[in-house]
């Protein structure tokens, strides 16, 4: 088994919990209310800015030209393609730029973004590759499962989101990210492989937490005293 095969098996229970989470269950059957989805979109949009910078760092640190090109292209996709998807939904919901800016960055969004940024600055490239992989792989896995559940229903309110993450082109990028991670793991020493394992698991935990935070419309418990001008949700 490759490194990715082993780590995917290790996180199987957590991955199932992601699929079973009420947010993704409601996203799949189309009953997810707009407030929760809009909150998720705002937070994910902010996360993607940080994630793109982390991918750009991976590109700069990669020694193989093909790896550098992949991470650079992925950074561009996160900033342009995925954020455009978010913007389209928010405009459809009638939310202005001012309204979305008034939503405080959630504790989970800040924590996940900060974790990846710290990893990009301090960890070796193999560990960084493992840390950014769940955002590719988990989303593709969820998107494919939701597409199967919805059978591509034309009237599904979140069909565009599902189509984006179940798209064959996105699946191909996941395979490339996995291949890079496996190749780096093959030449890594045992300590680095353990750190890669830890990074993948931690980032996957953050993936569950991110969806959970959107379901709960997570806010800062101290916000009422320090940030009364920032709203908790999109409405």
Summary, kept brief:
It contains 12 helices and no strands.
Describe the structure.
With about 240 residues, this protein is mainly α. It has one domain: Heme Oxygenase, Chain A (Up-down Bundle), CATH 1.20.910. The protein is about 80% helix and about 0% strand. It has twelve helices and no strands. It has helices at about 5-10, 10-20, 20-30, 35-60, 65-90, 95-100, 105-120, 125-150, 160-165, 170-185, 190-215, 225. The longest helix has 28 residues, at about 35-60. The mean pLDDT is about 95. It catalyses: 4-amino-5-aminomethyl-2-methylpyrimidine + H2O = 4-amino-5-hydroxymethyl-2-methylpyrimidine + NH4(+); thiamine + H2O = 5-(2-hydroxyethyl)-4-methylthiazole + 4-amino-5-hydroxymethyl-2-methylpyrimidine + H(+).
Discrete helix count:
12
Q: What order do the helices and strands follow?
A: HHHHHHHHHHHH
The radius of gyration is: 18 Å
- Estimate percent helicity: over 70%
Q: Strand portion, in percent?
A: under 5%
Give the biggest beta sheet: none
Shape: globular
CATH class reads: Mainly Alpha
What is the number of domains? 1
Intertermini distance:
48 Å
Low-confidence stretches: none
CATH architecture: Up-down Bundle
User: Which homologous superfamily in CATH is the superfamily?
Assistant: Heme oxygenase-like
Structural class: mainly alpha
- The average pLDDT value, as a whole number, equals 93
Number of strands: 0
Q: State the CATH topology.
A: Heme Oxygenase, Chain A
